[in-house]
Fold:
Amino acid sequence: MVPLQQLSYRQGALYAKTQKHVLVCVQARPAGHPRSSCQEKGCAAVWQAFSDEFTARNLWVSGFALTNTGCLGPCHLGPSMLVYPEGIMYSGLKPEDAGVIIDEHLMFDQPVERLLVPADVRAWDHGQNPVRNWRYGFRHGRFL
Ligand code: FES
Structure:
């Protein structure tokens, strides 16, 4: 049997079923766009911080996944991100928040309250939308 650390990310993801999937918005829009964008608010540094933490902690082969993604909805609050399977959304992120979210939410299932999107945005979020969750589940093999 091949040790888990020697597997590629894709092999590792198949080997160890994904426990949590982090999706970081890296959407860009032209300057002056009325919706602004996470890129305008510094998402590149947030994405890099998550990527660095995943690499440093070897989370890629430990059942965690990290993906950069397009707009998640609350652009004015960005940088934004989602954690599945719970569908919990964070906003207004800074690079230093990556380690905190990993330490508390990914490792111990304790969402970081101070970084959650406001309640009026939460009511809209993906965790409350069964159609989105259903589609996501199919795309990521949860129902296959
Ligand atoms: S641009 Fe990131 S949430 Fe819309």
User: Anything to note?
Assistant: The chain has a mean pLDDT of 82. Residues 25, 27, 37-38, 71-75, 78, 80 surround FE2/S2 (inorganic) cluster (CB under 6 Å). The longest strand covers residues 20-25.
